[in-house]
């Protein structure tokens, strides 16, 4: 009796490990999330996490956390770049992203779907990613939140009333928009040529934008 019970439990355990095997050996799946400052990337990522259970990694949040980490050798440099709306050197951003991905997968091996928000923001970011992550992760697609500059600025100014962010002010925003137009838009266009971009009209309400987001993830996520 005991033998039958044990062999049944072992069979079940082996079977469930077998079915999980593809997930365990699968490379991390990456979804880049891009758009202007204030386009709603963070807002929509939080909703995707809630519904689909992906892990959200925001390059900006990781940089802000590193800036605030006691003893960080990069704190001051990061603050200067952020205030000026400039793009922090890629080595710093990639190492933060890589560490966050590794820690997530260490805590749960099946947790392999990552929304990487605010990256790659320029050619340097893209080359850094290809150098470091080529073959280690699969980029599934780019989710592009398309929103005009005026709406982006208004939303960030509104957010600035409570965010405490040193870059949610008009002066920083004009620089951030300029960086976005000059450096990030060409990266989106590059991915577009590869047929890897899903463009979403981000000027609609939060709920309507999420309806469009769900259509994409239900089909291709
Ligand atoms: P991003 O991560 O792209 O910088 P956020 O998600 O932080 O943008 O959104 C910026 C601000 O705009 C936040 O205050 C947020 O509540 C608001 N917001 C986000 N999406 C919308 C939307 N579709 N319509 C109106 N306001 C929005
Ligand atoms: P965000 O939170 O996405 O609005 O980003 C805020 C600021 O963080 C940007 O204006 C940049 O200074 C910096 N930053 C965010 N993402 C990146 C990135 N991928 N590479 C370098 N700097 C970044």
From TrEMBL:
The keyword Transferase applies. Pfam families: ADK. GO terms for biological process: 'de novo' pyrimidine nucleobase biosynthetic process; pyrimidine nucleotide biosynthetic process. Its EC number is 2.7.4.14, 2.7.4.6. It catalyses: a ribonucleoside 5'-diphosphate + ATP = a ribonucleoside 5'-triphosphate + ADP; GTP + UDP = UTP + GDP; dTDP + GTP = dTTP + GDP; dADP + GTP = dATP + GDP. Keywords: ATP-binding, Cytoplasm, Kinase, Nucleotide-binding, Nucleus, Pyrimidine biosynthesis, Transferase. Binds 1 Mg(2+) ion per monomer. CMP binds at residue 125. HAMAP family: Adenylate_kinase_Adk, Adenylate_kinase_UMP_CMP_kin. Monomer. Consists of three domains, a large central CORE domain and two small peripheral domains, NMPbind and LID, which undergo movements during catalysis. The LID domain closes over the site of phosphoryl transfer upon ATP binding. Assembling and dissambling the active center during each catalytic cycle provides an effective means to prevent ATP hydrolysis. PANTHER family: NUCLEOTIDE KINASE (PTHR23359). This is UMP-CMP kinase. It comes from Acipenser oxyrinchus oxyrinchus. The lineage of its organism: Eukaryota, Metazoa, Chordata, Craniata, Vertebrata. The gene is CMPK1.
């Amino acid at each position: 009796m005991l033998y039958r019970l044990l062999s049944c439990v072992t069979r079940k355990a082996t079977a469930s490990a077998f079915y999980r095997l593809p997930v365990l050996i699968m490379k991390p799946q990456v979804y880049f999330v891009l758009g202007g400052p204030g386009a709603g990337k963070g807002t929509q990522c939080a909703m995707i996490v809630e519904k689909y259970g992906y892990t959200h990694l925001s390059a900006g949040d990781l940089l802000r956390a590193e800036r605030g980490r006691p003893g960080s050798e990069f704190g001051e440099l990061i603050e200067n770049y952020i205030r000026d709306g400039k793009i922090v050197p890629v080595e710093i951003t990639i190492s933060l992203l890589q560490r966050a991905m590794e820690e997530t997968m260490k805590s749960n091996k099946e947790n392999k779907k990552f929304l990487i928000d605010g990256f790659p923001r320029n050619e340097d970011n893209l080359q850094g990613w290809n150098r470091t992550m080529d073959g280690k992760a699969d980029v599934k697609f780019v989710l592009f939140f398309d929103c005009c500059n005026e709406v982006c600025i208004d939303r960030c100014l509104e957010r600035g009333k409570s965010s405490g962010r040193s870059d949610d002010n008009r002066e920083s925003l004009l620089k951030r928009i300029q960086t976005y137009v000059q450096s990030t838009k060409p990266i989106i266009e590059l991915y577009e040529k590869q047929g890897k971009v899903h463009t979403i009209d981000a000027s609609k309400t939060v709920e309507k934008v999420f309806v469009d987001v769900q259509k994409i993830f239900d089909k291709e996520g």
